[in-house]
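User: Teach me something about this protein's shape.
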Amino acid sequence: MQIPMLDLKAQFAGIKEDVLAAVHEVFDDQWFILGPRVKSLEEKIAALCHVRHAVGVSSGTDAILMALMAAGVGPGDEVVTTPYTFFSTVSSIVRLGAKPVLADIEPDTFNIDPKKAASACTSKTRVLLPVHLFGHLINGKEFRSIAAEKNALLIEDAAQAIGARGGGFEAGEIGSMACYSFYPTKNLGGIGDGGMVVTDKDDIAARLRILRVHGGRDKYVHSYVGINGRLDELQAAVLLVKLPHLARWNEARRTIASRYKEAFAGLPITLPIERPGFYHTYHQFVIRLADRDRLQQYLREHGIGNDIYYPIPLHLQECFQDLGYKKGDFPIAEQCAKEALALPAYPELSQESQDEVIARIHAFFGKAHA
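Assistant: First, the predicted structure itself:
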């Protein structure tokens, strides 16, 4: 049996006619940039996040970049974030000439540790940029308190957490801004790159809408040096078809996660947690084990997809060596990088395939510890 890490074809099969009809409407209209579908999607995502504004942008990376630009981040500023995340969380800071200041993560949620984030703040800290990694929210009240105490803006990297909630918050309503990705593999994925920034603040939303069109309020009149960062109508059309399915898809992910947790209890594996009062959306189901590389190879040999998020923490990436960090500075992130393995957990994963994943992992440990 071949079980992919993710099967986008299976998802498409269930919504194919609706997606093709929506795309054909865009071609019939010939309105491709910042049209009615983008506006409709923005309104629906804002409502989902319990905020007043959502601004469609060209990718999750550009969402982070433009959020930092809207916050006025630049040379001399510091942004506190995590070394255990996707590259663009930190690269967006560097692109603006600011300094990423990293803090280690919690070993159970993989999210940045709030106490260590608070300790990393200085008088130069302009922004706190926590990540809701794999779909588990940060502690919103704690990070709001830190941001207020340090006089810093709080921006959520919610790229992996659409629909997640916890601690009295929806993803997207904790900080002054939150950034989403609609990359095809996300829980709500488009047909290419796409993203969104949400905010409850009128002035920030207005600035974001200017920044995404080269910093221009009006045609050929530029208030800022912005970027070409717009979400297009084709992406919005597909996302509007998919959005009504998001809650059901997230529930399916949670059901698979619950089944895995029950099946793997007692094995020498550290399972992902869900803190009381939180709603984890399991963008990835990530386990930890000391013998990760051997299990990964075993699963691949038996046709079971898997992946490593993330094999090299960002402070150890060659391009960030000038930040001054070294191996050993963030031991929990470094340990997770050696031990973390993501298993198939997408909504369309059949029970038969789940059974095969479970059986193979049990077989691996039975063989290894016989």
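Now, about its shape. The radius of gyration is 21 Å. Residues 161 and 289 are 24 Å apart (CA to CA). If you'd like, I can walk through any region in more detail.
User: That's plenty for now, thanks!
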